[in-house]
Every structure is written in structure tokens, then in C-alpha cells.
Amino acid sequence: MPELPEVETIVNDLRPFVEGRRIVKVDLLWPRVVECPSPERFVRGVEGKGIVWIKRRGKYILVKLDDGSFFILHLRVSGRLLLNPPEEDRYARVVIHLDNGDRLVFADPRKLGRAYWVLKAEEVVGHLGPEPLGDDFTLEAFVQRLKGHQCTIKSLLLNQRFLAGLGNIYTDEALFLAGIHPQRPASSLSQEEIQRLYEAIRTVLREGIERRGTTFSDYRDAFGAPGRNQEALKIFRRAGRPCPQCGAEIKRTKVAGRGTYFCPRCQPLFRGKH
Fold first, then answer.
1. Dihedral through CA 258, CA 237, CA 207, CA 226, nearest 10?
2. Buried b / exposed e across 50-63, counting CB within 10 Å, b at 16+?
3. 159 and 242: one domain?
4. Pick from 96, 125, 154: which residue ends a domain?
5. Do 76 and 114 reside in the same domain of the chain?
């Protein structure tokens, strides 16, 4: 699933091409992609509108239209948003035609991605927690948000109401960088560990953006190119290989129903036991 760095890369790619343009036609090739309102109202709401800006919120792509409404996309597991793909995509679900002849194609092999047209963006993204790279997400804010949570730290970081944009890949990478076992109760983290985790989250996300995202299979940027961050991953999908820090064998388990990778030596389950 595209996470914060992948969605940020797509939005940054598209911004100079779509802001200020007008949507002249919408081809809704698979109507069930529309989560709300009805497919017919979605097309009427988007067609003919100018694009004021495009931004990311969590894992969502937000497009503000010139009547104040919003066109929103969630790529989910396999969705792609491509600018002028060179050939017809058999997985295309929505095609947005712009006034200069450019095309935005939302393609999704697994048909899990969703599109929205709403009057207020909060109708779709109002439940999201703070942005981990936002200026208002300070260490102090992170400390306060962690208080009282008894669940595992990984399941908490995956909760989009707690923090917006983190998914399986970057959560595992951040926990490894911080030296914290993914099954540790969130309430058990020391002040030093919280600071390490805060810095690790921001580091792995920034590096993911710099490397234009992580591609294992489906993810592509807006121009159809894969990301490069998979080449730099230290722990994710490396079960059975030696830890790059200590040489111990990387293990795989399940946390919150997700495949989870960790080093048992660098990330001890119990504090003080290495």
C-alpha cells in the first residue's frame, strides 16, 4: 500500500502539471470506485471545475476545485495516479481530461482504491491524526499523544487516527532505527525511547520521499517510474537475513494482523535485555 512518502511523491510530481488547469471531462470506467456521492453526482461535481491546488493528507490525495469542493483519492493497496501514461491501461478506473490535453489516469488492479467528491475535505479526512512531518508535530506533542495507550507500539503507529500516513513498511523501519520492539506496549516506552522513535519516524519518511518511494510491485510515481527506497530498507522483508547493525537473524512475526520484521537483539522485547 502506498504510504506517506509514495503519496507525497505523486502529489509533488503532479502539482506543476495540474494546478491552474481545468477538468473538461471525466471518464468513469468503473463506477464502484466512487465511495461518495453517487457516480453520477461525482462526475457532475468534478467536470468543468478548475484545480486550485493538490495536496496530500495522510495517505489521501486532495484536489481543491474552484467552487470550493474537493476531489479526493485514496490509492489503497495497488492504486496508481498517472500523468499521460503512454498506452491504455486495462486497470484504468477513472480518467480525468484537462483543458490542455493532459490526462490523469487512476489505475487500480485490485479495485480497492476509492474516489470521493465532497463539499468539505473533513468529510473524508477529518478523522486523521497529525502529520508526522508537520511543523506542529513536535516531540512534546508525540509524548502527549502516547499517554494512556496500552496497545502495542506498532499497532498504535498504524492507527491513522493516531498519526496520519504511516503504514507497514515505514513503521517497521522506524522501530528498527529507534531500537524498539514492535510488540512493546506503547505505554512502556521511556522518554529516551520516545525521542528516538520520534526522530526515527521523521527520518525514514524523509528518506522515503528523497528516494521517491518504495516499490515492491504496484507502486509507481506519477510518471510511471518505480521508487528507489526498497534498495535502502534495513529490516522490512528481510527475514532470515543478518541484521545490518549486529548480524543477528532478522525475524518475522505478526502484529495487528500485519507481517512485521525486527531484530531480536537490536529491538529487545524487554527493556535492558540485549
1. -100
2. ebeebebbbbbbbb
3. yes
4. 125
5. yes
Question: Which pLDDT tens digit goes with each residue over 119-164?
Answer: 999 999 999 999 999 999 999 999 999 998 999 999 999 999 999 9
- Annotated active-site positions, please? 2-3, 59, 258
CB 26 within 8 A of CB 94: yes
DSSP 42: H
Domain count, the chain: 2
Please name which of 169, 159, 172 lies closest in space to residue 217, comparing C-alpha atoms.
Answer: 169
**pTM of this prediction?**
0.96
- Looking at every residue in the chain, the average pLDDT score rounds to 97
CATH number of the domain residue 163 falls in:
1.10.8.50
Estimate the crossing angle of helix 191-210 against helix 168-178, to 10 degrees.
Answer: 130
Report yes or no: 139 and 130 within 8 Å, Cβ to Cβ: no
134: in domain: no
Q: Which residues are within 8 A (CB) of 101 and not within 5 positions of it... i.e. 6 or more apart?
A: none
Looking at the structure, tell me whether residues 258 and 143 fall in a common domain: yes
